[in-house]
Design goal:
heterodimer; A: 152 residues; alpha/beta; five-stranded parallel β-sheet; 5 strands; B: 554 residues
Amino acid sequence: MSREPTGPIVCATRGGKASHILQAKAIQLARVEGKPLVFVYIVSPGNLGALSEKSKEAAQAELTWFGHALLKVAQLRAQRAGVKADTIVRQGNVRVQIEEVLREKGAGLLLLGASRQRGSTPTFDEDALTQFARQVEQDTGVEVRIIALDEA
Amino acid sequence: MWFKPFFQETQPEFIQIEIVFLIFILISTLVAIAIRVRKIKLPYTVALVLVGLGLSAINDIPLLAEFRAFLFPVTQQTEQIQTLISSVSIEEVVLALFVAPLVFEASLHLNWNHLRKDLLPVLLLAVPGVLVASFIVGWIIARTTEIPIELAVAFGALISATDPVAVIAFFRSLGVSKRLAILVEGESLINDGISMVIFLIALDMSTGAIASFNLWQTLGIFLQEAGGGILIGLALGALAGTFLSRLDDHLIETTVTMTVAFGGYVVATQLHTSGILAVVAAGVYLGSTSLHNVSPTTRIALDNFWEFLNFIANSVLFLLIGLRIHLMDLWQNLLPISFAILAILVSRGVVVYAMSDLSTRLGKAIPLPFRHVMFWGGLRGAVSLALALSLGRIPHASTIQAMTFGVVLFTLIAQGLTIEGLIKKLNLSEITQQAETQRRLANLLVSRAEKQELARLYHEGMLAESIWQALSQVSDTETLTILERNPELEQNILIETRREMLRSGRVALGEIFRRNSISEEVYQDELAKLDERIQIWDRIEDSFDTLPYNGATS
């Protein structure tokens, strides 16, 4: 059951090809509801599989750069739309870090993106994303909305 | 004639083999060129088989043989070539020399992270799937021919090994989903080894080497062959990985991988385990671990070497297949071949759709369009032929070989030539969208390069400031317009920009070193770190296919 978000809207983006769709929807929602926006990127080299120590360091550095660049682009996009947006880049476990951000900012709503690939139904790991969202809601009491990012 | 000396009987056999090999390479190159310039619209491997078949037919078909003397000179030598080929133990050559490196190369490039996500359906298709298919085919063949059931099951096993070379080539050119490619390639790599194991067990039963069917004994043999092969492969992969981590010489590292590919097969078969599964396990292990930690120079050298070896092995193999097939044998065994084709279609259908259903029930859904492609894309090739040829002169061997040739030919031609149409009809081809995105990206990068060139011309005094600023604004507008219309290119731009930044950092580091501002030790250390950062972008790009939150709840 959805309820009116009371704090800022937090948008967790990872920079996939359809991330601009998620960011656009977050900006639109923030403008309509008159809420500030926070873009979050979590640096998580764990997604890259097994890495040597040297590669882990390189991955950490490059993903951090990417996160800052991506969120800066998102922030500029929001500014052009007349929405104030903050950016946060964190490192560590994705769920733990997102929950910390939600608590720190007193967020009212978290937006996540679910990409649907052409030619395959259902989406990969859709259940995992839903499970993730429910866990965050349970832990923080913040509403989590999954935005379908159907690619054109 | 001028070429006669090349094929004199007094020539050393080695030279004759070398000449034959060179002729194969020449024919393969001509076919590849013809396809590249789009003169022939056929998959490369199918074209090679047809060319080989054509050359073989010149000797086999009496009508054509009459005109042999008047045809292109090399056709007079095809009989010589065929005699030479027949004298070599083709099945051993095919498996050890060609199939092992092909399988290794495919395993090396199989993304373990992607395979792991679909390990359940892949294993269902490759293990119980092959078992079920072997028995379905065996039952049909035993009922429709005089071949006894044990030997029929052996045939069922050997014909269940799929060969995705032609299909994967289509996947790449049509931009098909990575997941479908993983399912097809993953299944094929594992079912090659499993079908060999079942084939050997069934053959032993048919020849009396195993007196009677005993479930536990059979299971034991299966586990020894399959499990043993995998363990040996993993051990070799780990050993090779240790060497690779301590080396930084692209020539030595390439040699290590070559040793694993060829040596792994030999070691495993000597220890009475599955050579193919050993090579697959070693390749997947190395590809998922060590390969990501080698230097960019080594990575490029490895990719080039294995791509080249793959091309040569495929070319010679599929030409060999065509040359080995005799059309008269096929004609004389038309009825058993027809039943064999029916049997493999039925068994493939049952296995693909039933195992996909089972996988769905167990939580890993396989969409219906994928199943259709997996069913019709189950081509047969080298492994099936090699196993059939290994039967030697046992009773019914020639019938089984004819059936195998017939099925392989049918799948390569009938299925191989229609799979592209099926993929397009099922809307699984993303090439239109991909090509469009790539075109836009190319326009963007060209636009940026043009702007850089403008800046260079201005700074070198070849452009007035007013002209430079005006043209730059035009270029900026073009760039912004492309980006605004195609925001999905943002990710590509960020990644390409970062790569260029790191590469220019490499150049700057080199200049500082050449000016003696830093020592060699510092230069090498910093260079290695930069290379690491450049290389990690391949993994990062790959990871964008992975949803970020799956499994991240811990």
